Amino acid sequence: MDGKLQDSELKVMGVLWREGETTAKHVAEVLAAEVGWNRNTTYTLLKRCIQKGAVERLEPNFRCRPLVDREAVQAAETGELVDKLFDGSRDKLFASLLGKKRLSAQQIERLKEIVREWE
Fold it and tell me: Chain centroid to CA 98: how far?
């Protein structure tokens, strides 16, 4: 993929990740309902995603298919966030996410499972 996806482009990708291959028209309809965008806005963002190599345009009917998966984009975005705001420290990010909020026993157990998987 060529370049970082902007927030607006991530909304387009979100629809494609949820729905899979679909028409640009359908993506525009979903985003009109979710965020109030008009069709031209969505088509412009789809074209940017295509230029960046995140989406493939298929014919007929301007069908779109995501070329990058959500997990890869999340990993890249998380890495950038950690570097930018937490000096590359994942434990600082983790502590910030938890803050002073109380977690349920189930949430605590799930976090322990995740940590064990990393060990």
Answer: 21
In tens digits, the chain (119 residues) has pLDDT values of 888 999 999 999 999 999 999 999 999 999 999 999 999 999 999 999 999 999 999 999 999 999 999 999 999 998 999 999 999 988 888 888 787 778 888 988 998 898 898 88
Report the first-to-last Cα separation within the chain, whole angstroms. Answer: 31
For residue 51, the Cα-to-chain-centroid distance in whole angstroms is 17
Non-local CB neighbours of 96 within 8 Å, separated by 6+ positions: 86
pTM over the 0.85 mark: no
Both tokens assigned to 112:
């322990």
Token pair in block for residue 7: 């927030």
Segments in the chain forming alpha helices (H): 7-19, 24-35, 39-51, 70-85, 90-98, 105-118
